[in-house]
Design brief:
This protein is an alpha/beta fold. The protein folds into two domains: 127 residues, Four Helix Bundle (Hemerythrin (Met), subunit A) (Up-down Bundle); 192 residues, Rossmann fold, CATH 3.40.50. It is globular, with a radius of gyration of 20 Å. The protein starts with a strand and ends in an 8-residue tail after the last strand. Bound molecules: 5-S-methyl-1-O-phosphono-5-thio-D-ribulose.
Length: 333
Protein backbone atom coordinates (compact mmCIF):
# COMPACT_ATOMS: atom_id res chain seq x y z
CA UNK A 1 0.00 0.00 0.00
CA UNK A 2 1.60 3.25 -1.11
CA UNK A 3 0.83 6.37 0.91
CA UNK A 4 2.47 9.05 -1.21
CA UNK A 5 3.83 8.97 -4.76
CA UNK A 6 5.68 11.59 -6.80
CA UNK A 7 4.63 11.58 -10.47
CA UNK A 8 5.81 13.70 -13.41
CA UNK A 9 3.24 16.43 -12.81
CA UNK A 10 1.55 15.74 -9.48
CA UNK A 11 1.79 14.20 -6.02
CA UNK A 12 -0.60 11.31 -5.46
CA UNK A 13 -1.84 10.63 -1.93
CA UNK A 14 -3.89 7.85 -0.41
CA UNK A 15 -6.71 9.91 1.13
CA UNK A 16 -6.51 8.82 4.77
CA UNK A 17 -9.65 10.70 5.77
CA UNK A 18 -11.70 8.12 3.82
CA UNK A 19 -10.17 4.99 5.38
CA UNK A 20 -11.06 2.30 6.25
CA UNK A 21 -14.25 2.37 4.13
CA UNK A 22 -12.84 3.83 0.92
CA UNK A 23 -9.40 3.34 -0.56
CA UNK A 24 -9.06 6.34 -2.86
CA UNK A 25 -6.11 8.29 -4.13
CA UNK A 26 -6.15 12.07 -4.67
CA UNK A 27 -3.92 13.97 -7.07
CA UNK A 28 -2.36 17.20 -5.86
CA UNK A 29 -1.37 19.22 -8.90
CA UNK A 30 -0.10 22.29 -7.08
CA UNK A 31 1.40 23.25 -3.74
CA UNK A 32 -1.86 24.76 -2.50
CA UNK A 33 -3.80 21.50 -2.93
CA UNK A 34 -1.00 19.58 -1.21
CA UNK A 35 -1.00 22.11 1.65
CA UNK A 36 -4.75 21.61 2.00
CA UNK A 37 -4.25 17.82 2.02
CA UNK A 38 -1.69 18.14 4.83
CA UNK A 39 -3.90 20.43 6.93
CA UNK A 40 -6.93 18.18 6.55
CA UNK A 41 -4.86 15.02 7.32
CA UNK A 42 -5.40 13.35 3.95
CA UNK A 43 -1.69 12.71 4.44
CA UNK A 44 -0.43 12.60 8.02
CA UNK A 45 2.15 11.12 10.40
CA UNK A 46 5.52 12.76 10.96
CA UNK A 47 7.71 10.88 8.43
CA UNK A 48 4.99 11.03 5.74
CA UNK A 49 4.67 14.77 6.36
CA UNK A 50 8.42 15.10 5.75
CA UNK A 51 8.06 13.29 2.43
CA UNK A 52 4.94 15.36 1.57
CA UNK A 53 6.87 18.59 2.21
CA UNK A 54 9.78 17.39 0.05
CA UNK A 55 7.46 16.27 -2.75
CA UNK A 56 5.63 19.61 -2.48
CA UNK A 57 8.86 21.40 -3.29
CA UNK A 58 9.54 18.97 -6.15
CA UNK A 59 6.07 19.83 -7.46
CA UNK A 60 6.82 23.56 -7.19
CA UNK A 61 10.11 23.02 -9.04
CA UNK A 62 8.46 20.98 -11.81
CA UNK A 63 5.73 23.60 -12.31
CA UNK A 64 7.86 26.71 -11.90
CA UNK A 65 7.63 29.04 -14.89
CA UNK A 66 10.67 30.88 -13.57
CA UNK A 67 13.21 31.94 -16.15
CA UNK A 68 16.66 31.42 -14.73
CA UNK A 69 17.92 30.23 -11.39
CA UNK A 70 16.78 33.19 -9.28
CA UNK A 71 13.17 33.03 -10.39
CA UNK A 72 12.95 29.28 -9.83
CA UNK A 73 14.45 29.69 -6.35
CA UNK A 74 11.96 32.42 -5.58
CA UNK A 75 9.06 30.07 -6.53
CA UNK A 76 10.61 27.41 -4.28
CA UNK A 77 10.91 29.85 -1.35
CA UNK A 78 7.20 30.70 -1.66
CA UNK A 79 6.25 27.01 -1.78
CA UNK A 80 8.48 26.30 1.20
CA UNK A 81 6.82 29.03 3.29
CA UNK A 82 3.35 27.68 2.42
CA UNK A 83 4.25 24.08 3.26
CA UNK A 84 5.86 25.07 6.58
CA UNK A 85 2.70 26.95 7.55
CA UNK A 86 0.51 23.83 7.43
CA UNK A 87 1.26 21.90 10.64
CA UNK A 88 3.77 22.99 13.30
CA UNK A 89 4.62 19.97 15.43
CA UNK A 90 6.10 17.20 13.25
CA UNK A 91 9.73 18.24 12.83
CA UNK A 92 10.18 15.94 9.81
CA UNK A 93 8.26 18.43 7.66
CA UNK A 94 10.67 21.24 8.52
CA UNK A 95 13.82 19.12 8.22
CA UNK A 96 12.80 17.69 4.86
CA UNK A 97 11.94 21.02 3.24
CA UNK A 98 15.26 22.40 4.51
CA UNK A 99 17.15 19.49 2.94
CA UNK A 100 15.44 20.13 -0.41
CA UNK A 101 15.87 23.92 -0.24
CA UNK A 102 19.56 23.58 0.67
CA UNK A 103 20.10 21.28 -2.32
CA UNK A 104 18.27 23.68 -4.65
CA UNK A 105 20.14 26.75 -3.37
CA UNK A 106 23.50 24.99 -3.78
CA UNK A 107 22.85 24.02 -7.40
CA UNK A 108 23.07 25.76 -10.78
CA UNK A 109 19.94 23.82 -11.71
CA UNK A 110 17.58 24.24 -8.72
CA UNK A 111 14.71 22.54 -10.54
CA UNK A 112 16.55 19.25 -11.00
CA UNK A 113 18.27 19.52 -7.60
CA UNK A 114 14.95 19.95 -5.78
CA UNK A 115 13.38 16.94 -7.51
CA UNK A 116 16.43 14.74 -6.84
CA UNK A 117 16.65 15.80 -3.19
CA UNK A 118 12.93 15.14 -2.67
CA UNK A 119 13.31 11.61 -4.04
CA UNK A 120 16.24 11.06 -1.67
CA UNK A 121 14.12 12.15 1.32
CA UNK A 122 11.62 9.45 0.37
CA UNK A 123 14.29 6.75 -0.15
CA UNK A 124 16.00 7.58 3.15
CA UNK A 125 12.69 7.30 4.98
CA UNK A 126 12.18 3.83 3.50
CA UNK A 127 15.66 2.65 4.49
CA UNK A 128 15.55 4.19 8.01
CA UNK A 129 12.25 2.41 8.60
CA UNK A 130 13.62 -0.95 7.51
CA UNK A 131 16.56 -0.72 9.94
CA UNK A 132 14.41 0.63 12.77
CA UNK A 133 11.86 -2.17 12.61
CA UNK A 134 14.56 -4.87 12.82
CA UNK A 135 16.20 -3.20 15.83
CA UNK A 136 12.86 -2.69 17.57
CA UNK A 137 11.58 -6.21 16.93
CA UNK A 138 14.35 -7.61 19.14
CA UNK A 139 12.70 -5.97 22.16
CA UNK A 140 9.46 -7.91 21.59
CA UNK A 141 8.76 -11.46 22.77
CA UNK A 142 6.46 -14.21 21.62
CA UNK A 143 3.13 -13.71 23.39
CA UNK A 144 3.48 -9.97 23.97
CA UNK A 145 0.27 -8.01 24.34
CA UNK A 146 1.02 -4.61 22.85
CA UNK A 147 -0.84 -1.34 23.26
CA UNK A 148 -0.37 1.43 20.70
CA UNK A 149 -1.82 4.89 20.14
CA UNK A 150 -2.66 6.84 16.99
CA UNK A 151 -1.15 5.43 13.79
CA UNK A 152 2.58 5.03 13.30
CA UNK A 153 2.40 2.58 10.41
CA UNK A 154 2.78 2.46 6.62
CA UNK A 155 0.21 5.21 6.32
CA UNK A 156 2.38 7.53 8.41
CA UNK A 157 5.70 6.71 6.72
CA UNK A 158 7.15 5.56 3.43
CA UNK A 159 7.81 2.05 4.77
CA UNK A 160 5.98 -0.37 7.03
CA UNK A 161 5.92 2.18 9.81
CA UNK A 162 7.82 3.03 12.98
CA UNK A 163 5.84 1.62 15.94
CA UNK A 164 3.71 -0.57 13.66
CA UNK A 165 6.77 -1.48 11.59
CA UNK A 166 8.33 -2.94 14.75
CA UNK A 167 5.14 -4.90 15.51
CA UNK A 168 4.88 -6.16 11.90
CA UNK A 169 8.54 -7.21 11.85
CA UNK A 170 8.24 -9.07 15.18
CA UNK A 171 5.18 -10.87 13.79
CA UNK A 172 7.04 -11.65 10.54
CA UNK A 173 9.76 -13.27 12.68
CA UNK A 174 7.14 -15.65 14.01
CA UNK A 175 6.39 -13.98 17.35
CA UNK A 176 2.71 -14.11 18.24
CA UNK A 177 1.67 -10.62 19.22
CA UNK A 178 -1.76 -9.27 19.96
CA UNK A 179 -2.45 -5.57 19.72
CA UNK A 180 -4.75 -3.13 21.49
CA UNK A 181 -5.24 0.02 19.41
CA UNK A 182 -6.49 3.18 21.14
CA UNK A 183 -9.17 4.73 18.94
CA UNK A 184 -7.37 8.11 19.27
CA UNK A 185 -9.96 10.84 19.58
CA UNK A 186 -10.83 13.12 17.93
CA UNK A 187 -9.73 12.00 14.44
CA UNK A 188 -9.66 8.25 15.16
CA UNK A 189 -6.31 7.35 13.61
CA UNK A 190 -6.16 4.26 15.83
CA UNK A 191 -9.68 3.01 15.13
CA UNK A 192 -9.61 3.77 11.40
CA UNK A 193 -5.96 3.36 10.39
CA UNK A 194 -4.01 1.24 12.88
CA UNK A 195 -6.70 -1.45 13.01
CA UNK A 196 -6.85 -1.35 9.18
CA UNK A 197 -3.09 -1.97 8.98
CA UNK A 198 -3.14 -4.71 11.62
CA UNK A 199 -6.00 -6.52 9.88
CA UNK A 200 -4.09 -6.23 6.59
CA UNK A 201 -0.98 -7.70 8.29
CA UNK A 202 -3.12 -10.45 9.88
CA UNK A 203 -2.12 -9.40 13.40
CA UNK A 204 -4.95 -9.78 15.96
CA UNK A 205 -6.12 -6.30 16.95
CA UNK A 206 -8.70 -5.03 19.43
CA UNK A 207 -9.81 -1.40 19.25
CA UNK A 208 -10.52 0.37 22.54
CA UNK A 209 -11.55 3.92 23.35
CA UNK A 210 -8.71 6.02 24.74
CA UNK A 211 -10.18 5.96 28.23
CA UNK A 212 -9.94 2.15 28.39
CA UNK A 213 -6.12 2.05 28.32
CA UNK A 214 -5.81 1.76 32.12
CA UNK A 215 -8.39 -1.01 32.16
CA UNK A 216 -6.59 -3.15 29.57
CA UNK A 217 -3.21 -2.58 31.24
CA UNK A 218 -4.60 -3.80 34.53
CA UNK A 219 -6.93 -6.55 33.30
CA UNK A 220 -5.81 -7.72 29.86
CA UNK A 221 -2.11 -8.40 30.35
CA UNK A 222 -0.63 -5.56 28.30
CA UNK A 223 3.12 -6.27 28.37
CA UNK A 224 4.47 -3.43 26.19
CA UNK A 225 3.39 -0.04 24.91
CA UNK A 226 4.87 1.33 21.69
CA UNK A 227 4.08 4.63 19.97
CA UNK A 228 5.57 6.83 17.27
CA UNK A 229 6.73 10.43 17.63
CA UNK A 230 6.28 13.79 15.95
CA UNK A 231 9.27 15.52 17.51
CA UNK A 232 11.84 14.33 20.01
CA UNK A 233 13.79 16.91 22.02
CA UNK A 234 17.48 16.45 22.80
CA UNK A 235 16.67 15.36 26.37
CA UNK A 236 14.29 12.65 25.13
CA UNK A 237 11.03 14.48 25.81
CA UNK A 238 8.72 13.32 23.03
CA UNK A 239 5.77 14.98 21.31
CA UNK A 240 3.23 12.54 19.92
CA UNK A 241 -0.51 12.34 19.41
CA UNK A 242 -2.61 13.77 22.21
CA UNK A 243 -3.13 11.09 24.85
CA UNK A 244 0.36 9.64 24.64
CA UNK A 245 1.45 11.41 27.82
CA UNK A 246 -1.37 9.87 29.86
CA UNK A 247 -0.59 6.47 28.38
CA UNK A 248 3.05 6.75 29.46
CA UNK A 249 2.04 7.58 33.04
CA UNK A 250 -0.37 4.64 33.09
CA UNK A 251 2.36 2.34 31.74
CA UNK A 252 4.74 3.45 34.49
CA UNK A 253 2.08 2.88 37.15
CA UNK A 254 1.59 -0.67 35.85
CA UNK A 255 5.32 -1.34 35.40
CA UNK A 256 4.92 -1.84 31.64
CA UNK A 257 7.78 -0.82 29.31
CA UNK A 258 6.88 2.24 27.23
CA UNK A 259 8.76 2.51 23.92
CA UNK A 260 8.90 5.28 21.35
CA UNK A 261 9.86 4.24 17.80
CA UNK A 262 10.97 6.95 15.38
CA UNK A 263 13.61 7.54 12.74
CA UNK A 264 16.37 9.95 13.81
CA UNK A 265 14.83 12.49 11.38
CA UNK A 266 12.25 13.01 14.17
CA UNK A 267 14.91 14.19 16.66
CA UNK A 268 15.03 17.98 16.72
CA UNK A 269 18.47 19.40 17.44
CA UNK A 270 16.82 22.80 18.02
CA UNK A 271 14.60 21.60 20.88
CA UNK A 272 16.52 21.13 24.11
CA UNK A 273 13.46 19.87 25.96
CA UNK A 274 9.74 19.36 25.43
CA UNK A 275 9.03 22.97 26.38
CA UNK A 276 10.63 24.07 23.09
CA UNK A 277 8.18 22.03 21.00
CA UNK A 278 5.30 23.89 19.40
CA UNK A 279 2.01 22.06 19.84
CA UNK A 280 -0.61 22.27 17.12
CA UNK A 281 -4.09 23.32 18.22
CA UNK A 282 -6.87 22.34 15.83
CA UNK A 283 -10.43 23.52 15.28
CA UNK A 284 -13.23 22.97 17.77
CA UNK A 285 -15.30 21.41 15.00
CA UNK A 286 -13.25 18.22 15.27
CA UNK A 287 -14.56 17.75 18.81
CA UNK A 288 -18.02 19.27 18.90
CA UNK A 289 -19.40 17.08 16.12
CA UNK A 290 -19.41 13.30 15.88
CA UNK A 291 -20.43 11.86 12.50
CA UNK A 292 -21.79 15.33 11.67
CA UNK A 293 -24.01 15.32 14.77
CA UNK A 294 -23.44 18.10 17.33
CA UNK A 295 -22.37 16.57 20.64
CA UNK A 296 -21.23 19.74 22.47
CA UNK A 297 -23.46 22.77 23.17
CA UNK A 298 -22.44 25.81 21.08
CA UNK A 299 -21.92 27.82 24.27
CA UNK A 300 -19.27 25.43 25.71
CA UNK A 301 -15.59 26.05 25.14
CA UNK A 302 -13.59 23.31 23.45
CA UNK A 303 -9.84 22.69 23.64
CA UNK A 304 -8.21 20.67 20.87
CA UNK A 305 -4.44 20.19 21.19
CA UNK A 306 -3.35 17.64 18.55
CA UNK A 307 -0.25 16.53 20.48
CA UNK A 308 1.20 16.33 23.96
CA UNK A 309 4.72 15.92 25.28
CA UNK A 310 5.75 12.83 27.23
CA UNK A 311 8.63 13.65 29.60
CA UNK A 312 11.72 11.50 29.02
CA UNK A 313 11.45 9.99 32.52
CA UNK A 314 8.41 7.97 31.39
CA UNK A 315 10.11 6.52 28.30
CA UNK A 316 11.82 3.11 28.64
CA UNK A 317 13.63 3.39 25.30
CA UNK A 318 13.63 5.28 22.01
CA UNK A 319 13.98 2.91 19.05
CA UNK A 320 15.68 4.44 16.00
CA UNK A 321 17.46 3.14 12.90
CA UNK A 322 20.73 3.81 14.74
CA UNK A 323 19.86 1.67 17.75
CA UNK A 324 17.82 1.92 20.94
CA UNK A 325 18.55 4.94 23.14
CA UNK A 326 18.01 4.77 26.90
CA UNK A 327 17.93 7.45 29.61
CA UNK A 328 19.81 9.70 30.07
CA UNK A 329 19.18 10.28 26.37
CA UNK A 330 22.16 11.42 24.32
CA UNK A 331 21.58 11.20 20.58
CA UNK A 332 25.06 12.50 19.75
CA UNK A 333 23.63 15.59 18.00
O1 LIG B 1 -2.09 14.16 13.61
P1 LIG B 1 -1.34 13.02 13.01
O2 LIG B 1 -2.22 11.89 12.57
O3 LIG B 1 -0.39 13.47 11.91
O4 LIG B 1 -0.44 12.46 14.20
C1 LIG B 1 0.41 11.39 13.96
C2 LIG B 1 1.10 10.89 15.18
O5 LIG B 1 0.98 11.41 16.25
C3 LIG B 1 2.03 9.72 14.97
O6 LIG B 1 2.06 8.93 16.12
C4 LIG B 1 3.43 10.24 14.68
O7 LIG B 1 3.43 11.18 13.64
C5 LIG B 1 4.36 9.14 14.32
S1 LIG B 1 4.05 8.45 12.73
C6 LIG B 1 5.26 7.32 12.41
Amino acid sequence: METIILKEDCVVLLDQTLLPERLEYVECRDVESLAEAIMSLRVRGAPALGVAGAFGLALAAMHSKGVGRREVLSDLEAACARLKSTRPTAVNLFTAVKVVMDAARASDDPRAAAVDAAKRVFEEDVSMNKRLEKIGAELFDDGDVVLTHCNAGSLATSGRGSALGVIKEAARQGKNLTVFADETRPLLQGARLTSFEMVDAKIPVTVITDSMAGFVMKNRGVSKVIVGADRIALNGDTANKIGTYGLAILAKAHDIPFYVAAPTSTIDSQSRSGGDIEIEFRSRGEIEFFNNVRIVPREADVLNPAFDVTPAEFISGIITEKGVFYAPFDFGL
